[in-house]
Amino acid sequence: MAARVVMKQLVIAIDGYSSCGKSTTAKAVAAALHYAYVDTGAMYRAVTLYLLEHNISFEDLGQVEQALHTLHISFRRNRRTGRNEVLLDGVNREDDIRQMVISNSVSEVSVIPMVRHAMVAQQQRMGRKRGVVMDGRDIGTTVFPDAEVKVFMTADVVVRAQRRQAELAEKGEQVPLEDIIENLRKRDHLDSTRAESPLRRAADAVLLDTTHLVIDEQVDFVLERVSAALFAPRG
User: Fold this and answer.
1) What's the CA gap between 135 and 42, in Å, rounded?
2) Which of 195, 185, 215, 234 is nearest to 22 (CA)?
3) Interstrand relation of 73-77 and 84-88 (parallel, antiparallel or unpaired)
4) Residues of the chain where predicted confidence (pLDDT) is lower than 70
5) 109: closest CA among 38, 141, 61?
6) I want to staple 132 with a disulfide (CB 3.0 to 4.6 A). Which of 115, 119, 126, 127 is the partner?
7) pLDDT tens-digit profile of 14-29?
8) CB contact at 8 A, 85 and 78
9) Which pLDDT score, from 0 to 100, does residue 2 have?
10) Which helix (H) or strand (E) holds 149?
11) CATH tag for 11-226 (out of 3.40.50.300, 2.60.40.10, 3.30.70.890, 3.40.50.12280)
């Protein structure tokens, strides 16, 4: 009887700037590998949505802390669309967290240390068994610095804005390109300069510029790195 080959389970960290194709690429990679997928950015968006809907000031740390103990974030796969959708207190809020009003505030919420600590702890629990693809800003540097595959994605800001504008238009939200460019530049600055887990490329992360790439090319790029990690000689 032939021996059964058990493939080792990896953590794949995909970090980078907004609207570079991180989530779409990460979802496709996870599907190809039959891995779990965690959109960490959606978690920060869900916290932002909760605070805004409950009229909690981002500067009122007492209320923010209480909110973190109250709210519950989880993910559920939509069998019809194949999408992994975020649930806030058991309610599907996937479309709500993608609105421009959330994009305009999420970086302010994600710089709050207690928010980052709470989300990072939950993300680490989600990936404890490995066999997971996570995308975000600090996966390869803070959440899983021992991830076997690390990719850092970037793209020209105008191209990123055009992609984001198309996504919003599909949901019926019309936003001028200039407003989106301004939003992306603001978020880039806040994410890169925050004191807590700033957006930066891990020393061992491979750079992937998606400016002129389609999603299939991005996915192939990551899967090639996964294959290299899976079949790397043990030393």
Assistant:
1) 10
2) 215
3) antiparallel
4) 1-7, 81-82, 233-235
5) 61
6) 127
7) 999 999 999 999 999 9
8) yes
9) 45
10) strand 149-154
11) 3.40.50.300
